[in-house]
Give the backbone structure.
Amino acid sequence: MIRNAQMKDYGSLTVLMGYLGYPATSEQMHARLERIVEKEDHYTLVAELDGRVVGMIGFHTGYLYTQDEMYARVIALVVDSSIRNKGIGGELLKEAETLAKSLGATGMGLNSGNRTEREDAHQFYERMGYTAKSTGFVKSLHS
């Protein structure tokens, strides 16, 4: 079952972020989720299996300077490592695409790291109809 995330899911999201390679404490995830659910243009869906949260996708919508239509961008997508390759990630992505389209988005994008351990993810995105188009750059703005 796929549903909207709730604040009570922060513990499960803490574990899932670790699987994604971004470990956090429960307190950090609780605070992050509080900020995210306040944003009208941010959406978080979770997948439940036997009453347990086993996957999540988060995305936001917005506008670009280079096109007239609304876009959606996946911020995070992860499935519990013990049950991957069972279609849960695909269902989460399809549900997010459907929701984004219903909100008026005409396209969806995402970034995925260029690390060796992300190769399976890249193949998954290609199977789901995504095309590699750009290279991302980041810079910390901390002093």
Summary: The two ends are 43 Å apart (CA to CA). The longest strand covers residues 52-63. The first helix runs from residue 10 to 20. The chain has a mean pLDDT of 93.
